[in-house]
Design a protein that fits this description.
The protein is α+β, with helices and mostly antiparallel strands. The chain is built from 13 helices and 21 strands. Strand 10 and strand 11 form a beta hairpin. The termini are far apart.
């Protein structure tokens, strides 16, 4: 043992949680003597997992507790996370001063070990909690870890960072290289089986600690997952875990994350990724309207896996199928899943009849009400043309193409798809600015037609209130434009404009409804009141007339 003995003072670690209670250490309360020096110059930090053996003795040399097998322990080192795991104050202050491989003897007063009234660590009955104790600490290792379980029962040490950000969750599947270790050595290694270990999340096929840890890993990541006893029972025979294991190490390298998605939440449309695509999910998926290029094979799983259609065999001499998304050219379930695929990805889609051929022309070889599987490969896709940099004329040509597609869908009874096309153009119109009166007139006319088309779609879908609201948008837009023009008129011209507006009003558009909101108003004094209206009152009066009359005329279209 070295002659040098250290006397401790409360640590001033800036990284320490400021919410933790201050530790009061008096001279002589905590002493440390180095038995064997460590190596290097780095020491454990807050958040590191420390791996160490310890032996607890009384000042008379009686051993009361140890992790070492030669002193009656189990032989497995203790693992704690600095700043997060429960430990005595003497360890919390002294271990951060040690180097890797160092062996030191600590002399600790009761107030800094189990004799502390607020000590978070439980000890057996009869333990000498009120005696001064000696702790022999051998620091085997320390390293950064990520806490997986809140109770610190599962932590993860990253050996190699992965790619992307997608992680597995229920009901995903994963393929991993897996090695399982305990203090007794290696129990299982998938490399010996010469094939990856494959399991499904949420089906209790592996210990909970392993599933939790793998659920935080990305593709090609390599990590060691440390799971305590409560996260490895019940034992799983496939891994050969003994029931008395206090802790298990799972060395894992993720090969493939097999994305499995319940697209509608009720099990009627399931997408399972077979082969990974290129890019990042979902940023590089054709989520918006795109030109899609695919190969697919249609299968009847309830008919012995019979293939009823294969683009490589049945479509234009084996050419891929090219179509626009949102145009109703393939079954709904198939298109929904393709929108969540990456270029080059191969997926298997299992669809109930509702999302297959119940609402789509059914091939002769597909029985009515049949469950269908599609094995589909997304070769590539082309996003819809960006209007940025286009001239007004080029934009309106694109509008005509999209509107024509919407009209076709409307005639085919696919009102929801048609409405989506019209609404997309209306959203994009928010970024279009006509440069002259002629362009403004063309733009206003196109927008008017689109609003009315949306209203017609809502009406066909039985949503009458939304249909009227869509009509109102166009009616109010026109009324606002006319109302703005009134400010260019002189007071004397307003009376003439008012009279012309009354002459053009429909027969049922009387003055009474327009003035119904005014208090103490009657038919006898309307004319006298109207004669006393000021400039702004006349404008508001005409505004109401324009709005109501325009709405009435527009809604009549439906």
């Amino acid at each position: 043992m070295e002659d040098r003995t250290e006397e401790f003072r409360p640590s001033q670690d800036k990284n320490k949680d400021s919410s933790s209670k201050k530790i009061n250490i008096s001279p002589g309360d905590l002493m440390k003597a180095i038995i064997r020096p460590g190596e290097g110059d780095t020491r454990p930090q807050q958040g590191d997992q420390i791996v160490f053996h310890y032996t607890t003795r009384t000042t008379d040399g009686v051993i009361v507790e140890s992790t070492k097998s030669e002193y009656g322990g189990k032989g497995a080192p203790c693992r704690l996370v600095l700043g997060k795991s429960k430990m005595i104050k003497g360890w919390e202050e002294s271990i951060p001063t040690m180097l890797k491989g160092e062996v030191s003897m600590l002399k600790v007063k009761p107030a800094l070990h189990y004799g502390d009234e607020e000590c978070p660590v439980a000890v057996p009955e009869g333990f000498p909690t009120m005696d001064e104790l000696m702790f022999e600490i051998e620091l085997n290792d320390f390293f950064k870890v990520k806490v997986v379980a809140d109770d610190l029962g599962v932590v993860k040490r990253v050996l190699k960072e992965g790619e992307g950000w997608e992680t597995a969750r229920e009901p995903y599947e994963v393929k991993v290289w897996l090695t399982v270790r305990t203090s007794k050595g290696i129990l299982f290694s998938s490399s010996k089986e010469k094939e990856p270990f494959h399991f499904t999340f949420g089906k209790q096929e592996v210990p909970a600690g392993l599933e939790l840890g793998v659920g935080t890993m990305t593709r090609k990541e390599k990590s060691i997952i440390y799971a305590s006893h409560q996260y490895i029972v019940p034992s799983f025979s496939v891994l050969g875990l003994p029931l008395d294991s206090e802790e298990v190490e799972f060395e894992v390298e993720v090969i493939q994350i097999i994305q499995v998605r319940d697209m509608v939440g009720n099990g009627q449309l399931i997408k399972r990724r077979i082969h990974d695509g290129q890019g990042e999910f979902p940023m590089d998926c054709p989520l918006q309207d795109s030109r899609l290029c695919i190969h697919y094979k249609g299968i009847l799983p309830d008919d012995g896996g019979k293939v009823f259609y294969d683009t490589r065999r049945d479509h234009n001499g084996g050419q891929p199928l090219v179509f626009g998304s949102g145009e109703g050219l393939v079954p709904e379930g198939l298109e929904m899943c393709i929108k969540l695929m990456l270029p080059g990805e191969v997926a298997c889609v299992t669809s109930a009849p509702e999302y297959a051929y119940d609402k789509f022309p059914r091939p002769e070889s597909v029985p009515e009400g049949a469950t269908v599987q599609w094995e589909v490969e997304l070769l590539n896709f082309e996003k819809a043309k960006d209007w940025t940099g286009l001239t007004f004329q080029e934009i309106m040509e694109e509008v005509d193409i999209i509107k024509a597609t919407g009209n076709r869908l409307f005639k085919e009874g696919k009102y929801d798809l048609a409405k989506t096309k019209y609404e997309k153009v209306l959203r994009d119109f928010n970024h279009v600015n006509p440069q002259d009166d002629e362009e403004g007139k063309t733009f206003a006319q196109a927008r008017s037609q689109l609003h009315l088309n949306v209203a017609a779609c809502f009406q066909k879908m039985g949503e009458c209130i939304k249909s009227i609201e869509s009509c109102n948008k166009e009616a109010e837009a026109k009324a606002r434009k006319q109302f703005k023009g009134l400010f260019d008129k002189k007071p004397g011209e307003l009376s003439n404009l008012e009279d012309r507006g009354m002459e053009k009003a429909p027969a049922d558009a009387t003055e009474e409804p327009l003035l119904r909101d005014c208090p103490d108003q009657s038919n006898d004094n309307i004319s006298s009141k109207k004669g006393s209206l000021g400039h702004m009152s006349k404008i508001m009066y005409l505004w109401k007339r324009l709005q109501r009359t325009s709405i009435s005329q527009r809604c009549a279209i439906l």
